[in-house]
Design goal:
The chain is α/β, with parallel strands linked by helices. It is about 30% helix and about 15% strand.
Length: about 250
């Protein structure tokens, strides 16, 4: 007998992969991050002579080899340093550890509501966390996947106010397998985390790239924007990038 739950999942995934979004969300609300001229220039590469394309690929490989960042300072949660072979300055961090990069920049690892796993046998044997980046008089929290938890009010009291919180807003609906994941915030919970952190602005990420769950793929940014004011944010301060968009950091802060 076919599992009815699996039928629901298969049907939803088929729709996501076929159309890129489910039909109850207006796709026209989402413009590409690159304009047509840039896309056209990029598309011309495939029409280049084979020798020129080969030259470009060789140049890229040489550049990549020369720029291999073994010199970079690596900051990683506990027990993950072994994955950065070849790097000379690898720093494993526990929650609340802080590393001073220079007089203007310091980075702390803070708690997150998530689990960790790198192989079949090491579930929760490595640490997961969020990074707080403090540069001069600005604070940015980069949430490395998290669910909602009371810990964010504590972090808000200790480290707030935060100038910009970057946080996941997608991959939360796993019905009928279970009600929702506790490890990925809904758009509303993401706003709640930002509110608890006393954030001035919040940027929604972790949506629209891979089909990981069953909500319509373009639903998260709509719910995120629509709910912003309920959590004390102006809509323009609940930021959503166009897919492919790049922005200078000082424009966001």
């Amino acid at each position: 007998m076919v599992d009815k739950n699996q039928q629901v999942i298969d049907k939803t995934l088929e729709q996501e992969y076929k159309y890129g979004f489910t039909t109850d969300v207006d796709q026209t609300k989402f413009e590409p991050g690159l304009d047509e001229e840039v896309i056209a220039k990029l598309s011309k590469i495939k029409n280049e002579p084979e020798w020129l394309l080969e030259w470009r690929l060789k140049a890229f490989k040489n550049w990549k080899k020369m720029s291999e960042p073994t010199w970079a300072k690596v900051l990683t949660p506990l027990n993950l340093g072994k994955y950065f072979k070849g790097y000379k300055d690898v720093n494993e961090m526990d929650w609340y550890d802080q590393i001073i990069i220079n007089e203007d920049l310091k980075i702390s690892l803070l708690p997150a509501v998530h689990w960790s796993k790198r192989s079949l046998t090491d579930t929760n044997k490595t640490l997961w966390g969020n990074f707080l980046i403090e540069h001069k008089n600005k604070k940015i929290l980069f949430a490395c996947d998290t669910g909602y938890g009371k810990v964010y009010k504590e972090l808000g009291e200790k480290y707030g106010p935060i100038d910009l919180t970057m946080i996941n807003i997608g991959a939360y609906n796993f019905k009928p397998m279970f009600d929702k994941t506790i490890y990925h915030t809904t758009p509303e919970e993401a706003l709640n985390v930002a509110q608890d952190l006393k954030s001035k602005k919040v940027l929604g990420m972790h949506w629209g790239t891979f089909v990981l769950s069953l909500e319509p793929i373009m639903e998260p940014p709509i719910r995120f924007k629509d709910s912003a004011e309920k959590y004390g944010f102006n809509k323009e301060d609940a930021i959503i990038f166009k897919i492919g968009e790049v922005s200078p950091l000082d424009k966001l802060l």
